[in-house]
């Protein structure tokens, strides 16, 4: 949260609208008062499963019912404990980017979720692959199988267009680029980011995703300063906007010109109150251990988990 507050707080795009990021949240050990803070700061909250468990085979083999317990039920869970409106939770990222075939998208269609942002593409980055629906069967390359094989009307795919590392190898997230600048090399990191950004900016303008875990930025001080410098640069480009994933999907569904976009009112939302409550110890049904959690609601009776996402 220290990084998020300093990096994104009070930052605006060139249209003078506050920047917005999307945070993919899993349940275990989450402080829901901080989720509430992110929401109130104007960021988007999205789903990343209740358990985030290993091994990854669990996700590879997950069926519709498993996906509904892990992610469909998490929508009401995160809305309840962070006290944010459930109709603002739209997106999904699967743990470890491990695809589950048709199951996760069938779950999304049933659960009223809008988009998935778990599916990397190596083959379709020059030109970049734009977001698309699964109304028709996808022809996107399958990097981490199994990928969807069916037409599943409703959900959108926001492809994770891979970056290219210093040796030309693809990486779907910044922290899994194998060949990257030295941790303290601010100029190296800045040029690394810019090379990947310019492939989009000078190409077909497919949305540019900067996907990274906070810990990776924290242990690489050069990246931390390069990222701030990069965001400062974007703030001064009149045809670039730093938006969340749902805003990307919205624009693709209803594209308008840059000039019209700049004249639109900035996004707005009603702040969600939070009366912070510290809960615990709470017994977990799965492994019989105690948990503690901080919430914006009444404490649950037991630790919330699969089949009982509200801990009733």
TrEMBL record:
<dbReference type="InterPro" id="IPR052740">
    <property type="entry name" value="CE4"/>
</dbReference>
<dbReference type="Pfam" id="PF01522">
    <property type="entry name" value="Polysacc_deac_1"/>
</dbReference>
<dbReference type="GO" id="GO:0005975">
    <property type="term" value="P:carbohydrate metabolic process"/>
</dbReference>
<dbReference type="InterPro" id="IPR011330">
    <property type="entry name" value="Glyco_hydro/deAcase_b/a-brl"/>
</dbReference>
<dbReference type="InterPro" id="IPR002509">
    <property type="entry name" value="NODB_dom"/>
</dbReference>
<feature type="domain" description="NodB homology">
    <location>
        <begin position="19"/>
        <end position="115"/>
    </location>
</feature>
<protein>
    <submittedName>
        <fullName>Chitin deacetylase 8-like</fullName>
    </submittedName>
</protein>
<dbReference type="GO" id="GO:0016810">
    <property type="term" value="F:hydrolase activity, acting on carbon-nitrogen (but not peptide) bonds"/>
</dbReference>
């Amino acid at each position: 949260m220290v990084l998020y507050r300093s990096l994104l707080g009070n930052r605006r795009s060139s249209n003078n609208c506050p920047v917005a990021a999307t945070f993919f949240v899993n349940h275990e050990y989450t402080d829901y008062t901080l989720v509430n803070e992110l929401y109130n700061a104007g960021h988007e909250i999205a789903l990343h499963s209740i358990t985030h468990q290993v091994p990854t085979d669990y996700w590879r083999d997950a069926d519709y019912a498993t996906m509904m317990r892990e992610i469909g039920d998490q929508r009401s869970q995160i809305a309840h404990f962070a006290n944010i409106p459930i109709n603002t939770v739209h997106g999904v990222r699967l743990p470890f980017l491990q695809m589950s075939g048709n199951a996760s998208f069938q779950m999304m269609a049933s659960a009223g979720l809008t988009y998935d942002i778990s599916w990397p593409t190596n083959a379709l980055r020059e030109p970049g692959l734009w977001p698309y629906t699964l109304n028709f069967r996808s022809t996107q390359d399958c990097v981490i199988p199994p990928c969807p094989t069916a037409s599943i009307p409703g959900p959108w795919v926001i492809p994770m267009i891979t970056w290219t590392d210093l040796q030309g190898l693809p990486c779907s997230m910044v922290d899994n680029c194998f060949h990257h600048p030295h941790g303290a090399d601010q100029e190296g990191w800045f040029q690394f980011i810019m090379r990947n950004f310019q492939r989009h900016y000078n190409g077909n303008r497919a949305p540019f995703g900067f996907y990274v875990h906070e810990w990776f930025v924290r242990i690489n001080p050069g990246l931390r300063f390069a990222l701030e410098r990069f965001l400062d640069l974007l703030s001064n480009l009149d045809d670039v906007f730093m938006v969340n994933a749902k805003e990307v999907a919205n624009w693709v569904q209803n594209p308008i010109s840059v000039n019209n976009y700049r004249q639109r009112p900035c996004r707005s939302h009603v702040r969600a109150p939070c009366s912070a409550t510290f809960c615990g110890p709470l017994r977990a049904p799965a492994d019989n251990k105690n948990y503690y959690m901080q919430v914006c609601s009444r404490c649950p009776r037991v630790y919330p988990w699969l089949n009982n996402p509200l801990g009733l």
